[in-house]
Amino acid sequence: MAADDVVGVAHSLLLKATGLGDDADHMHVVSICLFVSLLCACIVLGHLLEENRWMNESITALLLGLCTGAIVLVSSKGQSSHVLKFDEELFFIYLLPPIIFNAGFQVKKKEFFRNFIAIMLFGVIGVFISFGVISTGSWYLFPKFGLPDLSIRDILAIGVIFSATDSVCTLQVLNQDETPLLYSLVFGEGVVNDATSVVLFRAVQTYNFGNFTPLEGFQIAGSFLYLFFASCFLGIASGLISAYIIKTMYFGRHSTDREIAIMLLMAYLSYILAELFYLSGILSVFFCGIIMSHYTWHNVTRNSRTTTKHSFATMSFIAETFIFLYVGMDALDLDKWKQSQSSFKESAALFGSLLGLILLGRAAFVFPLSALSNYSTKSPGAKINIRQMVIIWWAGLMRGAVSIALAFNQFTEGGDTKSSNQATLMVTTISIVLFSTIVFGTATKPLISWLLPPKYRSNLDAVGISPNVSLDPDFSIPLLMDTERDENGVIERTGIRRILNGLPHPQSISMLLTAERSKIHHIWRRFDDAYMRPVFGGRGYVRLLSRRSMSMNIPEEDEALENEVNN
Amino acid sequence: MAADDVVGVAHSLLLKATGLGDDADHMHVVSICLFVSLLCACIVLGHLLEENRWMNESITALLLGLCTGAIVLVSSKGQSSHVLKFDEELFFIYLLPPIIFNAGFQVKKKEFFRNFIAIMLFGVIGVFISFGVISTGSWYLFPKFGLPDLSIRDILAIGVIFSATDSVCTLQVLNQDETPLLYSLVFGEGVVNDATSVVLFRAVQTYNFGNFTPLEGFQIAGSFLYLFFASCFLGIASGLISAYIIKTMYFGRHSTDREIAIMLLMAYLSYILAELFYLSGILSVFFCGIIMSHYTWHNVTRNSRTTTKHSFATMSFIAETFIFLYVGMDALDLDKWKQSQSSFKESAALFGSLLGLILLGRAAFVFPLSALSNYSTKSPGAKINIRQMVIIWWAGLMRGAVSIALAFNQFTEGGDTKSSNQATLMVTTISIVLFSTIVFGTATKPLISWLLPPKYRSNLDAVGISPNVSLDPDFSIPLLMDTERDENGVIERTGIRRILNGLPHPQSISMLLTAERSKIHHIWRRFDDAYMRPVFGGRGYVRLLSRRSMSMNIPEEDEALENEVNN
């Protein structure tokens, strides 16, 4: 692969040198070739560095992108480091949907819904707090660092841009199996946060801030709620329609490919329909993923199940790696660096103050909202201890492609910065993204192993208990109930019967709340079994049907595969 | 799904009507949305029409595209039928590679290589003959039909454009399992034909025909040979590198997704590298597919095997459907129809004469070259009888997206026709593509069942024998040898020992030739086992290794899955 890289770069340079590459179509082929070669190199390097505790695929891709940018820059004698221009459309229309869809498809649903309130607190209220802190700080500090004449809109845009955490990088530094509570909190926050940021950004761009009234505040809140629920509804509807189509028509009878194609297309349709109606495609495709993994996935043939599970993950993986590679390559865009008239001292001050504001802005909501969440839930299972708070704070500090995409939208026209201020802000954004991803990203894994040593992690975090709570037998029943599966239905039913008969023997009020949540879960299960599954299929339902009608032979591994996805 | 379509179209019209859709970015979202909805509708309709003997997915997609075009046309009051402009890049860079790669990946390798000489005769010499017939005919006839001042280059381009058969549609009308000989001949020809057409088209566009000398003829031949072998080499090298990387690193240990990603990316790299070096990406990715199914595919984990097999097929399926949908929608482009100044009579004459030339041009090489192939092989197994010749002639009459793409390249500038002549030729090309796909396409399945009733097909065509040859026991041994597998190794070894010991008891010279081919196959197998497999892995090799080192449990179905792909 390395040989291919060299050939690709060499040829691109050769073409540039000889002027043969002027042909726009062929330049495009050259850049695709370079990107595909680099993606292959990233995968191989990522594999070789797998055991390394500091590195991960994102950072490898970023660094590889930086190196390639530097090589192109040096060999073109400082003329250009660009191979492709950053294209918002490429990012929002093609790269982001597979990542978010796969996140919804593979997320542990129970964990996610168990922490739903905390996730919404972080993802919605958190963004507003962070936005307030960063905007206020920028408004106060930036004029001192050589940016005197920023409009109120630019200041607010900066607030939004640097409040958008990077859910892609989070996926790589936190492990769903090792730290499920942290993963579901930070990642769930990331998805909701992306949506909130995009909405807030649109509000900042369209509202007239000259005469801002409290009424307009309510309007923004109202439009946010509309957006949130409409997007979720759209995603859920797409997922259910796909489940219904596949269950009714039983495609597998004729072609596995049709099933896979319809899942893929319906998922993408949920994203693009949301964008069509100016909703949040991110939220829509995320919920579509959840619904598809709950219903549609169980209606397809065994081969389709294996295929969708792995091919969605692969698409997401390629898109992620591509984004980081791209951000790395874009960082050395000399035009922007030259256009910015800030001195080194001013740039450093700007960079430092923004980094400080990001740290502060996140601290300003993680600790209070965690405390609030702890206060409101009472259940020890969902309580967040101080060590976990620090990790949540830290793991969400990375800024990524969403920040870059928003900054490009705000500070460039057709990809080019038009003024010194715009150039300075673009350069600062790119520096912050690089720094936070590389420095905060590399430090997260070691931080987690330092704050949460494995002996605490595997058992306690798995059921979501903070390490200082002792496990007594009475506690363990409702907790097991939460992680209940069809396989250990006995425990489930015993626990629920106790609760329904009013015999939970609670030791404290928190037990009742845990029971309450289990009751909601139970009601959902009954609703699901009675009304949803007969129409939309789902786990066990279709297999039973197909076994009867087609007398297919489905082996044991099937169950294992299902369990992998279906928790 | 139908509801989604309606919403998509309605919204697009609403946007157009209200002027909200003027925003270029959002128009793009609208068109993606429409296409994704239509793709879903095609899949569902294709499924419902599965049992219909006249229809197939291509024709469904074409008709659906036509209907959508008509709806958009009517509702925009004749203003526009375009949702997306035909984009050569989209076609050649993104849609064609997955189709051809999948064809190589799923092709029955033995069948393909057994008919290699016939395929090359059809795919290379055939194109030149057809090109000659159509060019000469056009040069003689077109001036009479209102196209007096065509340049020699345009005439020759027309010859190439209408010599390119549509391998995509062929895949859908011929069945690999029912008529393997015909499938491998017609499809193999299609792939080679695509490559030949593209090369010939480039030659037509770049050579100076003012002073054409025989030397230049040799140059074209030389550049074709270079192109052919360099492209094959590139494809084979990419495939082998991917096999080597996966075998050496054993990705599956860490992540299935990495294996799938590297296969996907290396396959695409073979295509795009070929394009980078101005070679034939089609040939390159086809051979990469063959190599990957022989080596790489056997080196990956079981889940990756299932996933790649189905996801490559799905990608190809989506790309095919998209192309037909697109061609259908593009057909009603009123601008071109208006710009063409030909009268109805002239247009009809042009259309009719071109159709006649296509029929004639194909007949001019299928029948003589089949006879030549029959004369040269002598073996009854590879002989093509007259009924099969008719089917080969007929199934290759369809003209498809390659013709359209080449015509766009020749007769438009940035997607728009500039003169009446150009518009007339574009309109004629689109009409021919639509007519041939719909009329010839629908008639192929019935034609096959009429000419080759199932009682002949299943046994006789499976071993490639023309129905009038009787099966006597002595014949059956070498024929079984051709279809030999590891499973029935006894027959294989007996047969080969007989031949190697000079005891084949041949009844005729044809037996010796069959033995000859088996010997080549045997030499290849020994070379493969001795030198290739130890380095690049492959069937059985890695499984043995992994069984020993990882003590993995690989069940029986694995074999079944392997057999499906590995013949």
UniProtKB/TrEMBL annotation, chains A, B:
Recorded superkingdom: Eukaryota
Assigned keywords, A-Z: Ion transport, Membrane, Sodium, Sodium transport, Transmembrane, Transmembrane helix, Transport
GO molecular function: potassium:proton antiporter activity; sodium:proton antiporter activity
Gene Ontology, cellular component aspect: plasma membrane
Occurrences of domain Cation/H+ exchanger transmembrane (ranges): 46-450
Cited Pfam families: Na_H_Exchanger (PF00999)
Transmembrane segments: 29-49, 61-78, 90-107, 119-142, 181-204, 224-246, 267-292, 312-329, 350-371, 391-411, 423-443
Cell inner membrane as UniProt keyword: no
Name recorded for this polypeptide: Cation/H+ exchanger transmembrane domain-containing protein
Originating organism: Ceratodon purpureus
Top-level taxonomy: Eukaryota, Viridiplantae, Streptophyta, Embryophyta, Bryophyta
